[in-house]
Amino acid sequence: MIALEHVHKHYYNREGKKTILNDVSFTLKKGEKLGILGRNGSGKSTLIRLLSGVESPSSGKITRTMSLSWPLAFSGAFQSSLTGIDNLHFICRIYNVDIKRALAFTEEFTELGPYLYEPVKRYSSGMRARLAFALSLSVEFDCYLIDEVIAVGDARFNERCRYELFEQRKDRSIILVSHNQNSIKQYCDQAKVLDEGTLHSFDSIDEAFAYYKNS
């Protein structure tokens, strides 16, 4: 289970206190798939950082009794001077993952070949995203956090990503944060709308869409 209870987040700027998330509460159980709709500036990125543990809430409580991934295809935590393989070893040690199994999956899935043994700083953005996605799937999480719909590499590789996540791991929980209504309708069984820092709940995805269109 992942539970947010009366979560607030604010920052301070030259104008004073700015509230980004205002009294956000929800619970996600194992196997549930939640879509969170929100326009630019609604607080989606802040919510992602709080869910993944990068930042703490200003007040309120976040409880995690199942493992939650970092945002899929996020490569910001790579050590760019290290090789792709070195970064894989680092991730495996942190999460206590079998290195041989993770290496075999990463080599086959990324199709990066000898580039896996080159420093990540020499990678293109697409290559970094491929490596990040493979490492995300090398660790078996209970819940996957997805920032926008997955778009990594060409159409064939993109389809492999979708298959690995939404078919091979269809029993896992998902939190998909997006402004794309079609993606949420395709992959989620419930939806909420984040509007100016306030999270609105609905009885159906269609009701969430209706609110989102008019907000």
Mean pLDDT: 89
Write down the overall geometry. Answer: globular
Low-confidence stretches: none
- What proportion strand? 25-35%
* Multimerization state: single chain
- Cα-to-Cα separation, first versus last residue: 30 Å
How would you characterize this protein structure?
The chain is of the alpha/beta class and 215 residues long. The protein is 36% helix and 27% strand. It contains 7 helices and 8 strands, in the order E-E-E-H-E-H-H-H-E-H-E-H-E-E-H. It has a 5-stranded mixed beta sheet, sandwiched between helices. The protein has a 3-stranded antiparallel beta sheet with strand order 2-1-4, covered by helices on one side. A hairpin with a 2-residue loop joins strand 1 and strand 2. The radius of gyration is 18 Å and the shape is globular.
Question: Main attributes?
Answer:
alpha/beta, 5-stranded mixed sheet, 3-stranded antiparallel sheet, 36% helix, globular
Short summary:
This protein has 7 helices and 8 strands.
Layout of secondary structure:
Elements lengths: L1 E12 L2 E13 L4 E5 L6 H9 L6 E6 L19 H12 L3 H12 L14 H14 L4 E5 L7 H13 L5 E6 L2 H7 L2 E6 L2 E4 L3 H10 L1
Parallel strand pairs: 3-6, 3-7, 5-6
Antiparallel strand pairs: 1-2, 1-4, 7-8
Helix pairs in contact: 3-4
